[in-house]
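Sample intake sheet
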Amino acid sequence: MEKDKLRFWEEYDERNKPIKTCVRYLDPLSKKKRRKTINWKKYRIKNSRQARRILTDKVEEEIENSPIVLKETTKTFGSLVDKFVAEWENVVKPSSFRQRKYLLNIIYRKIPRETSLDVINASFIKSVWRKELLSENNVRTGKPLSSSTLASMRSFLKQVLYFGYENNLFSSSTVYTVRLDIPKKRKAEKEKIRQLRFMEREEVKIFFDCLYEYCQKNHLDGLSKRYPDFRYYDYCLFLLKTGARPGEVSSLIPEKFNFVEKSFKIDEQMITAGLSRKNTYLDEPKTEESNRVVPVDDETIEIVQRRIRDNEKRRLSITNWQEGFYPWKRRKEVPSYIETEYIFQTIYGTAITSHNLNEFLNGNGRVHGGVMDFIRKRHPEWKKHITAYSFRYTHISLLAEANVPIKAVMNRVGHKHAATTLEIYNQATKLSKQKVIDEINNWDFSSVI
């Protein structure tokens, strides 16, 4: 903005020291004069030149983002998305932003960046959704997009369109309020998949019996073949016992545990979605409610203490091996080993993540197959597909089966909305179904014949 169109002045206190700098300018949308002020103490201003430079930047930013300027510079769908993303990415987590970029690539294949905003209306959006986006397939699996992916895509697309309407780029609100339905068949498939990831009580017993045997049989430890490695067994059991998210468990270190009060604190999580193992990082929990203290039982405390002992034993073993402490063994370098404090570690010292666990369970790259293959050999009737999140779902469902109040479950697992908990909480287990039948059997309203 031209400086001659800005009028600056300072306001002073009783000691004649400047406390504020003000500016008056013309709003291009309303054609009215407006005023902005900056506080010297709040912004640690040293002189009026610095204050005026900051105010100039603020005025230019406001004018640049005003609807009238947006309308002049935003003519295509791509430029609209760019303007929206520039504002939106500053208020969301990097993991959310990465997921939306993936969805945006799918949308761009059906609504090219160069598409003029003049042709975008409710009918256009509805047609693209029904004829193009619903027929899109997942690049990795080749299957139609899941209902969850479609719901996220729909939400993102409507956010972009609402941003356009809010800034007078669309004349009608129907462009973002248009109904975009997800086929019932996709929703049913989602429910079917969720059923396969949930375990009944007897299935939990089968799973951990087989997992224990699998760990004993295959001796997964890369540096020692003499003793079985139970790190994944402990990780799975901890997930089941606590109901915590895999990312929350991956971030745990000994300092987070209170062994006297038998509890641990969750105040961060490990972000792995869409990232290579090198690029994983720690971030704040998923929601504000996810910051919590989780009480645990004696067995869970034993798991943690066992992991701490084993991690220290392994660290000393590798250090001694690298330094040639064992003269009867060939000195061996372990360049991939990283010394960390994580409770649940891989053989390389890094935190066990949901990626590691899913590969371990499903046998990706393992010559002897995964845990699921092992279970199916022992129990041909096994149909469940277990992932890192299966233990959280099962934890919630078993608490529901025990009639634990939903509010207590929400507090324990860190859910923000009751609807999220209820979706899993209402999962009918065999025992809960039997309770219903037993209750009905006790009803006797008939007359004696």
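Comment: Confidence is low (pLDDT under 50) at residues 220-227, 326-331. The domain at 72-194 is CATH 1.10.150.130 (DNA polymerase; domain 1).
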